[in-house]
Amino acid sequence: MSPARITDSFLSEVTHLRNSWAWIMGLGILLILTGVLCVIGDITATFATMIVFGWFLLFGGIFTLVQAFRVRTWSGFLLYFLSALLRGFTGFFLISYPTAGALALTLIIASFFLVGGFFRAIGAAMMRFPQWGWSAFSGVVSVILGIMLLAEFPVSSLWFIGFAVGLDLILEGASLVGFASALRRLPRIVPLSRAA
After folding, report:
1. What are the domain boundaries of the chain?
2. Whole-number pLDDT of residue 195
3. Which of 121, 112, 116, 120 is nearest to 149 (CA)?
4. What's the CA gap between 81 and 64, in Å, rounded?
5. pLDDT in tens, 119-157
6. In terms of DSSP H, where are the helices of the chain?
């Protein structure tokens, strides 16, 4: 493929994206609004997240179980079968007992913040790569967040997951809004083959 055709293909993709800036902006705004609702109604969002996640796991377990029986002569059948049962039972458990699921998930997340943040902060301080201070700061913030979650446990399990989902939606929406704004400011591009 010639360089001109590669450039034309790239420019046509950029033009297509530029023409879709309004849809991307709309999606970003919708995600921000949904995130704000999740942050405001963090307890409801926590339970909704547990139930939706439970349904995904349950359906995933059922489909995996069906697939396991379709390939039952395969040597990895037993692991596939056990994986399907684990997904299905975990999904059923989360749907039936969303509060217990939120408790367990909050404990896991708090532990992850503590351990991951500690190793990130220590590793950055030891290696001293360029801009290592930001990584160390991020690790310290993670450790503090993990301690806060454990200090407020079990109350933190009621609001944290909904708050985290809402915050993630807000940040994702903001990035899409920024991307759409940048696309809108792009000048109109004429492919080289048409300009010639």
Report:
1. 15-48+98-188
2. 47
3. 112
4. 8
5. 888 888 888 777 778 778 888 888 888 898 888 888 888
6. 3-19, 21-40, 42-70, 77-96, 98-127, 132-151, 155-185, 192-195
